[in-house]
Amino acid sequence: MGDRSGASGSRRRRTGSRPSSQGGSGPAAAAEEEVRDVGAAGDAPAPEKDKDGDVDVGSDQWDLRCHRLQDSLFSSDSGFNNYRGILNWCVVMLVLSNARLFLENLIKYGILVDPIQVVSLFLKDPYSWPALCLVIVANVFAVAAFQVEKRLAVGALTERAGLLLHAVNLAAALCFPAAVAFLLPSITPVGSVLALMVYTILFLKLFSYRDVNLWCRERRARAKAKAAAAGKKANGGAAQCTVSYPDNLTYRDLYYFLFAPTLCYELNFPRSTRIRKRFLLRRLLEMLFLTQLMVGLIQQWMVPTIQNSMKPFKDMDYSRIIERLLKLAVPNHLIWLIFFYWLFHSCLNAVAELMHFGDREFYRDWWNSESVTYFWQNWNIPVHKWCLRHFYKPMLRRGSSKWAARTGVFLASAFFHEYLVSIPLRMFRLWAFTGMMAQIPLAWIVGRFFRGNYGNAAVWLTLIIGQPVAVLMYVHDYYVLNYEARTAGA
After folding, report:
1. Element at 202 (helix H, strand E)
2. Is position 417 annotated as part of the catalytic site?
3. What pLDDT score does 4 carry?
4. Given 166, 384, 390, 417, which residue is catalytic?
């Protein structure tokens, strides 16, 4: 009692004591003063804690209030955003559900993984390597572009003639491998896809190579005109460690660009100072492991599902078609995610490390996309930079509207998607082209009606469901064209 009266006395000394109406200062007055001080503070005194952070039950403070204004954690106004445990739960549930599907697949089909069978996807004849020969021939188009630029730099060709030669060279770089892949029976569809991918990358790189060198010539011409108008003799200025035009026109510079993990040419790329051996080793091990994992998942999981989907397509059993589509969506999406990491993180980082290439922004946080447009701008940065620099902005400078420029980008992307699918399969169904062009109204719908987490969920849904639809369409048409037609003919 003495401790409590001492504490209340100290509070009275801080706040100033009031005379009692009855002129006394006994225990009743002290208790009244205690309640008054607590009410004025608006909350109970903070309970004392021991060294372990627990409330000291031996404290003489009175906990007169234990409630305060606060929202539930799941309320949007609470400000709470730490859902790591729920995310871990989702991962565990995802692993368990897919483990069940994988076990069911093993029980039903046995082990289907056969690394030796993969070789047949690339080669029909062990002594014939048509896809590799196509890749080697690609050097012809690179050298042709280089020679045109050398002659343009010294004025041996006019800009109009140079433009014509570049256009012919670029058109040939797309048409020649397409004709070979379409007409040569010995080339396999997988080998054809890889060869056409190399030529597509070469086309985009040479397009950028031509554009950047043209901009350098225009800048040099403006500098000379300005120097002549000022009555000064133009010169190269002080010696610099950077390369300037036309000193960049060397085979070393050209082939560095062709092998660098970028589609946009520069005279002076950012360079890293050294090769990090541990970083490179991790990327190489990831490449090997993920390659085997993707091949195994395709053979063990996707191939049986696709084969079992042919009969529902033939019978036009829509309920079974939807069931097969949903069953294919999970392995297809998982393989696509693995492929993304394998290509954009493991492969491109390994190549960049070997070549001392400094710009490692090959992707951004596309998984947080709340709109379709944000996804396409961030999941493949090399292609996005090329489209922005050599297609979108030039169209805007020529007076096109943003909508027309954006539509033009999707048209170009749709063309190359169809180019890489229809020619290796030797059939034209335009499913890939239609799927890419459908992104334009889809982007408008998601942007108009979905926001925040709902927009992100809509983007994920289109990725998970859209790709299996295109896969099943092409597989069905390929099966009908190549197997049912033969059976009917026999």
Report:
1. helix 189-229
2. yes
3. 42
4. 417
